[in-house]
Design brief:
Elements (H helix, E strand, L loop, with lengths): L6 E4 L21 E3 L16 E3 L2 E6 L5 E3 H6 L11 E2 L4 H5 L8 E5 L5 E3 L7 E10 L5 E6 L5 E6 L5 E3 L1 E3 L7 E6 L4 E7 L5 E11 L2 E4 L3 E5 L16 H7 L7 H5 L2
Parallel strand pairs: 1-17, 2-5, 3-13
Antiparallel strand pairs: 4-15, 6-14, 7-9, 8-9, 9-15, 10-14, 11-12, 11-16, 16-17, 16-18
Length: 260
C-alpha cells in the first residue's frame, strides 16, 4: 500500500491558545453536554493491552452551540445537525476538493474531565471523553472520516517519559468514507475511549484529518501500564516500520523499541 506523507500539526488541548496557521482568535469555550439517562451502569473500557481505535464521529455544530444535547442526537437526529449539503460522499472526493478546501487550519480541544456515557454497538454503555475539532480560521476546512469513525489514536507517557501509543488504527478499507465541510466558527465533536487503570500519566490524542496529523496538548489521564504492550507480539516481524507509519501515525510502540 502506498503511504501518503503525514504532515504534523501541533494542535491545542483543553486550555488551548493557538492554531497552526497563526490566526488570532477567541478561545473556544467547551460546551455543556446533556447526556442520556442509562438503564445500565456505564463502565470504563477494561482493556489491558494495545487495542484498536476508531474514535466516534458524533456530529458538527454551529459556533453558537453552548450545549450539546446527546439525548436528541441518539433518539432523533435534528435535521439541522445533519448538514447534508456539507457532506461529500463521491468517489475520490479527496482529489476533487484538495485544491479548493484545506484541512490544515483546525484546532483541537480535549475535555478529558467529562465522562460521556455512550452505547455504540448496543451492548451496554461505556465512558468516552469529548474532543472538539474547531475551525477558527476565516475559510472553510475539510474534516474526513468513515461511517461513524474519525481517524485517531491515544498515546501516553511511559515510565521513562517517552510518548507511546496505547491504541492503533483499526484496519479497514476506504469504503464509505466521507468529507465534511466545516465552515468558519463551526466545530466537529468526536468521542475517545476512556480508560481506568493502575497508571496515572500524561496523555494526548492524535487525529489524522485530510493527510494532516494533529497532536493535542497533553492532559492528565489514567490507563493500565500493560496497555503499552501488545497482547501477542512477534519480535521477528519485518513490518514494524510500516506499522509505525500506518497503524500508529508515526509513533513507536514500546515492544517494537524494546527489541532493538
Amino acid at each position: 500500500m502506498k503511504m501518503k506523507p503525514l504532515i504534523y500539526l501541533i494542535a491545542i488541548g483543553l486550555f488551548g491558545a493557538c492554531n497552526n496557521v497563526g490566526n488570532q482568535h477567541e478561545v473556544f469555550r467547551l460546551p455543556a453536554i446533556t447526556a442520556p439517562t442509562t438503564k445500565d451502569k456505564p463502565i470504563y473500557f477494561p482493556f489491558k493491552y494495545l487495542t484498536s481505535s476508531d474514535p466516534v464521529f458524533l456530529a458538527k455544530f454551529k459556533a453558537t452551540t453552548d450545549t450539546v444535547n446527546m439525548v436528541d442526537m441518539i433518539e432523533r437526529m435534528p435535521p439541522e445537525r445533519l448538514y447534508l449539503n456539507d457532506y461529500l460522499w463521491q468517489e475520490n472526493w479527496e482529489q476533487q476538493v484538495k485544491d479548493s478546501i484545506k484541512s490544515d487550519g483546525f484546532s483541537l480541544y480535549v475535555d478529558y474531565a467529562y465522562s460521556v456515557p455512550y452505547s455504540r454497538w448496543g451492548n451496554g454503555h461505556f465512558y468516552y471523553y469529548p474532543v472538539y475539532i474547531v475551525n477558527q480560521t476565516a475559510s472553510t476546512q475539510l474534516f474526513n472520516g468513515r461511517l461513524d469513525h474519525a481517524f485517531g489514536t491515544q498515546e501516553a507517557l511511559d515510565s521513562n517519559g517517552k510518548w507511546r501509543p496505547i491504541e492503533f488504527k483499526t484496519a479497514f478499507s476506504d469504503a464509505n468514507s466521507f468529507g465534511l465541510k466545516v465552515h468558519p466558527g463551526e466545530f466537529v465533536m468526536c468521542l475517545f475511549t476512556k480508560y481506568k487503570g493502575n497508571y496515572v500519566t500524561r496523555m494526548r490524542v492524535r487525529l489524522l484529518i485530510g493527510g494532516h496529523l494533529y497532536i493535542s496538548k497533553s492532559f492528565p489521564g489514567e490507563i493500565n501500564y500493560s496497555q503499552f504492550h501488545f497482547e501477542d507480539y512477534n519480535p521477528n516481524s519485518k513490518m514494524d516500520e510500516w506499522y509505525k507509519s500506518y497503524y500508529y501515525y508515526g509513533t513507536s510502540p514500546l515492544d517494537i523499541d524494546n527489541k532493538k
